[in-house]
Amino acid sequence: MMLPEPPSLPFIAAKDLMPLFTSKLVAAAATFAEISEAMDAKRAIADYLTQNNISDRLSYDPRAAEWLKEESRPLNSDDKVRVTYAHRAIAETGTLVFVTNDQSPNLSHFLPDIEIVLLRKSFVRPHLEEVLAEIKQPLTRGATMPRGVFCVTGPSRSADIEQTLLMGAHGPRYLHVIIWDDEKAT
Amino acid sequence: MIDLNKNAQKALDDPVLQAALHKVKPRFIDKRKKAIEAMPSFSEWRDYGKAIKDYVLNNIEKCLAEFTRNAEFSGAQVYRAIDAKAARKIILNICKTHQARLVTKGKSMVSEEIALNEALLHEGITPIETDLGEYIVQLRKERPSHLIAPAVHVPKSAVEEIFRKTHIDLDPKRDLSAPESLLEEARKKLRHHFVNADIGITGANFLIAETGSIVLVTNEGNGDLTHALPKVHIVIASIEKVVPRLKDAAALLRLLARSATGQEMSVYTSFVTGPKRLSDPDGPRETHVILLDNGRSQLLETEFQDILRCIKCGACLNHCPIYHAIGGHAYGSVYAGPIGSVLSPALMGLHEAAQLPEASSFCGRCEEVCPVRIPLPKLLRQWREKGKKYRPLKEKVTLTFWAFLANRPALYHRAVGLLLRCLSLFGSKKDRVAYLPFARGWFRHRSLPKARQSFFKQWKQK
Fold it and tell me: What is the DSSP string of B23-88?
């Protein structure tokens, strides 16, 4: 019996990619800000903290720390706000994709109260299928998938208490994405 | 044998349960409908879901072998457990080796199936359910009553009650009237357990053969805190969860979230492959994957094979009028609703579960909404055929008598004429008959319209 092949993926025009991504982000109760220069990220983060009266100290995943020229340190279970770096994103569903490696812990996406994600616009793909293919395809003999590939769509939630939808079940209560338009010619 | 009739009666008479069940429709049915309507190609994806699952069921050993090879290559240990006892033994051995005292659990119906929590408790190991609904149900010492929303039968006041009763170290005067406060309390309590657990046990929504990965889907993030914090991660999954490729898992995920909760994608969809790599800053040092059979391979190549396509979305439960009326506990099994009525006789045997396939009016909604097109009414009918010998004597006698009459048209007409005349003797309200002898069960919740004279004359003239 031949392996069946999936139907064609829902079509998303290139011009619709980012509007779709941001509208799905918001629909999933995440928030976002757009920046045109990489160095604006720091200010964008500061703005987010001020607007939301957050005074907790930030901690950074290594790739995010590098971008922001900050010190990185290992994630602590008390860290309230963690800045992370997205590997890819999915426009169809407003999803961020993270992979684990020496620069990227598992728990940064689950332990903190607030996760701030740095995302490059050029990392956004239309569908999950493309992202998975990009992660798997380059793996040569002897290499495996990253231990964790985490697809995150909005903050943590539960409706287990009398069908009332509430945020912050176990994972982050808030998810904020800073999108750098790295495709603009610099 | 599970006395579904008795359980159903109890459920119908329970006002708290009935109020809770009323919430199923808006939460699940309407949301699913909206999500499906937003995806015009959904039907094609359902066809594909069916096709890929059928491929797996026809090539299961090949798929499982590939999964095992790739999972082991990533550093995981993979086991085949033929039944619940074997699975429990493997898990308990791992726990003993690591001297585990506290175990966190992601939501896993299969772990319910093998009665894992009782076995752990028996060995002095404390399991903590981390899915909020499962946690509530665990504290109440109950079973989950729904595949996706285990505590759907528990009102907010009961959650408050059980939290106050259990979390005795907190201030008794605290205000728990807002659902947010209950969530916050559960979050703090469970966070403590997540961090201190020796071992994390999860199920798997899918097993991916080409990479040896498991797929874990949650909205809370509890699955990920369960597998990523402790030193050891144990996965328990039934064999039919395997799919060949990443893209097949992606396809089934399109069906799963929409069919279960009407979301396009659940909040956390994680593809986890083995234990931590040497250079990873965190993650478990050991990963054990237990592939459970427990009667499933017996269903392959039989008239019941199709049930193994199930991706545990819960859509059939959400649309079943019987489930709406009686809830999940009445089924007396780990699996409730239409899926439960087909799977339970397979896993437990008809001598236990013969009443479950009877709990259907064959309205067919379940088959209509099943993302992998399982012909549930047909499978229920097949179980009914096999379960004839378990029907009560009273029913067999009545049906035989009716069949006798139905095969003799003249006699039948006469009997019905007599019945219609008698009906008018039993009226209590004006136009309705509220009672007939031998039919108290039926009349408890319904009434018959009385035959009006004109109708009788008309009928007689025919």
Answer: THIIIIIIHHHHHHHT-TTHHHHHHHHHHHHHHHHHTHHHHHHHHHHHHHHTT-EEEEESSHHHHH
Give 10-residue mean pLDDT values along chain B (462 residues). Answer: 93 91 81 93 97 98 97 96 98 98 96 96 97 94 89 91 94 91 94 97 97 96 97 98 97 96 95 96 97 96 97 95 93 95 94 94 96 97 92 86 87 83 64 64 68 60 66
SS3 letters across chain A: CCCCCCCCCCCCCHHHHHHHHHHHHHHCCCEEEEECCHHHHHHHHHHHHHHCCCCCCEEECHHHHHHHCCCCCCCCCCCCEEEEECCEEECCCCEEEEECECCECCHHHCCCCEEEEEEEHHHEECCHHHHHHHHHCCCCCCCCCCCEEEEECCCCEECCCCCCCEECCCCCCEEEEEEECCCCCC
State ipTM: 0.96
Give contacts of B 145-164 with A, CB under 8 A: 149-152, 154-156, 159
Nearest to B289 by CA among B176, B352, B209, B191: B209
CA distance A7 to B251: 9
The set of residues, in sequence order, having a beta carbon less than 8 Å from that of B394 and lying 6+ positions away, is none
A 21-60 near B (Cβ less than 8 A):
24, 28
- Sign of the Cα torsion B28, B34, B35, B39 reads positive
CB B385 within 8 A of CB B354: no
Would you call B224 and A127 a contact, using CB atoms and an 8 Å cutoff? no
d(CA A76, CA B26): 40
Whole-model pTM: value is 0.92
- Cα atoms in the 13 Å half-sphere on the side-chain side of B14: 21
The predicted pLDDT at position B454 comes to 55
Q: Do B229 and B200 form a contact (C-beta atoms < 8 A)?
A: yes
Say if CB B189 and CB B129 are below 8 A apart: no
Express each pLDDT in A10-23 by its tens digit. Answer: 999 999 999 999 99
* pLDDT for the residue numbered B148: 84
The pLDDT score that the predictor gives to residue B296 is 96
Q: Verify whether the Cβ–Cβ distance B270 to A160 is below 8 Å.
A: no
C-beta atoms of B224 and A163 within 8 A: no
Whole-number pLDDT of residue B146: 86
